[in-house]
Each structure stands twice: as C-alpha cells, then as structure tokens.
Write a structure and sequence with these properties.
With 317 residues, this protein is an alpha+beta fold. The protein is 45% helix and 12% strand. Bound molecules: glutamic acid.
C-alpha cells in the first residue's frame, strides 16, 4: 500500500486480510484441476486476492503477486478482442445465453446446430479463437501484447509446458471444433485454432496483474493504466456494458446463477483457480485459490468474493 493511504484504503486492506484468514479454513474442500496434467502439479493450498480501484490505487493480500494459469479467464480477453475487431458479427457464430451445462459440454451443440450458447464456455471460446485466428497471423503475440499493455507488465507470457500439456490431451475440445466445422461454424483448421487456444489458456498472470488488466471494464471501457497515459478508450462504453452483462449471466459456467445470487458481480472464472470480478465504477477484484468445486470454480475464490461484497456492499449496478 502507498505511504499516503487514506482511512478508506486502510479499512479495505483490513477487510482483505480478514477475508484471507477466513478463507484459509476452507483448504481441503476442493481439488485442483487434474484433466490437464500440468495443472495437477500446482500446490493446492494457496490463496491471493487483489483489488484495483478506478482511482489507480491497489490493495492485495496473500499470494496476490504469484502468477498462475489464467485458463478460461483468457476467454474474456479474446472475446473483447473479437468484439473490437468484428463487432456484432460475433453473434452470427455464438449465442449469448447461459448454457446451464458444464464448461466443456457438447450436448447442446447438436440440437443448436453448431452454434455455442455463449463465448465463455469452451465451444464458444473456440469459435472466438477461430475468428481471431482468421485475423491475426500470430494471435499469441497479439493477445500477449494487449495483456502486457493493459496490465502494465511487459514480461507477461504463456507457459510452454502447460500449453503443451493441454494440447496433448485436448481431445474433447478438438472434437467440439470438428463438430462445429461440420455445421459450417469453423473456418480455420481445428489443429491451428487449438494451438492458439491452448496458448491463450496457458498465459500466466497474478491477481494484481489480472485486476489491473480488467480495469477498463470497471471504467466504461477506458484504460487508465500507466501506459495509457491520459486514458485510452480500449472498448466503447456500450460494448463494455454488454461484456459485463454477459459476464454476470455466463461467466461462471453452469454456476452462473449461483454466482449472481451469492456475489452479484460480472465474473470470469478459470480452472487454474482464478476469478476476476468487475465492480462497475468502483474497480476490479482478482482472487486465486487452485482448489476447485465440482463445477470447476475456485472454492476459496468464490468464498472471498462473497465475503467482499457482503462487507463492502459492492454490486453490479
Ligand atoms: N483450458 C481449459 C479447457 O479448455 C479451460 C477451461 C476453464 O478454465 O474453464 O478445458
């Protein structure tokens, strides 16, 4: 915390510290993701939390500086890039309804003719990565460039081992890509899109970096990070409002309703154990705890966000 911190900031720091202490009592209630072999190696009992406020201040607790695999949180960034590039055209290829099914489910794809329910489940994210693969010769560098700038972290990277580990075992995602191709909803070779998808999921960021990188969503689309100098409209205010609506309704897989009830904020979760939450007009929150519940969401992360909104009164409106 900076030396000239205000009483409100000191209180927020104390709140975070208290939440961290309480969260530790939940260790052992979840399991680290193991279907991607590299993720199974992560030590389960870890917790970090960072809050970035729109005035530029940031408070954090625990392992908020430790980088982890962002996994599905990358879907939020690729979706924003696709919206910036093709706008409403994305809706010809992906829906905007909660799926009510597991993040990697393919059951709806057949009845809905290869159009995934939303951009934040695997099938939808694969379509988004397909759109971006058509636009960028090197999607991995383009995405990293955007994230490095938004988070003001020039060293940000993806982990080669995690990407390879997922790519070697991505049979279900590959099957979904081919299935969508059979309906004409996939343009590029599935192998090429899967390469890009596994790299985006393997990007490593800390809670502090994630909170910073999502700040534009709390700020009407304006990037106020140090590299944006006087502030740059990264996403239009209208598109920002819509992204937040989708995060509120579709950001937590088939637990989106439960998250909206318990936390009431636009969120995006990932099987690396990270969750980002947007508090429009106030700031962003990133939490991390690798132990996941049965739906693939961080046990400690969801608990911490629930505690934070209860103690601060923060909400999506
Ligand atoms: N890379 C993961 C997968 O495709 C992301 C899943 C997630 O974080 O929900 O299975």
């Amino acid at each position: 915390m900076p030396p000239n911190h205000s009483p409100a900031l000191i209180q927020l720091q104390e709140t975070l510290n208290g939440i961290a202490t309480d969260a530790h009592s939940l260790y052992g209630q979840g399991k680290v993701a193991s279907y991607i072999p590299a993720l199974a190696q992560v030590a389960p009992r870890q917790f970090g939390m960072a809050v970035a406020l729109v005035d530029g201040t940031c408070v954090s607790t625990g392992s908020a500086g430790t980088q982890f695999s962002i996994q599905s949180i990358s879907k939020l960034f690729t979706f924003v890039l696709a919206l910036k590039l093709v706008g409403d055209e994305v809706w010809q290829r992906v829906g905007r309804e909660p799926s009510g099914a597991a993040f990697n489910s393919m059951v709806q794809l057949e009845t809905e003719k290869g159009i995934p329910r939303n951009p934040f489940i695997n099938a939808g994210a694969l379509v988004i990565t397909d759109i971006l693969t058509s636009r960028y010769a090197h999607l991995d560098t383009a995405l990293l460039g955007a994230l490095r700038r938004l988070s003001d972290s020039p060293d940000l990277n993806w982990d080669m081992q995690t990407a390879k580990s997922e790519r070697d075992t991505a049979h279900r995602n590959m099957a979904m890509a081919y299935f969508m191709k059979s309906y004409g909803n996939f343009v590029n070779p599935p192998e090429q899109v899967l390469d890009n998808y596994c790299r985006q999921c393997a990007i490593e960021m800390s809670c502090s970096q994630l909170a910073q990188a999502t700040m534009f969503l709390a700020n009407g689309g304006l990037d106020i990070g140090p590299q944006a100098q006087s502030g740059e409209q990264f996403l239009s205010a209208d598109a920002t409002r819509r992204v937040n609506a989708l995060l509120l309704t579709c950001g937590a897989y088939d637990a989106a309703g439960d998250f909206a009830y318990r936390i009431g904020l636009p969120v995006k979760t990932g099987v690396g154990g990270g969750i980002v939450a947007i508090v429009p007009g106030v700031g962003t929150v990133a939490v991390w705890g690798p132990e996941l519940d049965a739906k693939g969401n961080s046990v400690l992360g969801a608990f911490a966000l629930e505690q934070l909104v209860q103690r601060t009164g923060w909400s999506h409106d």
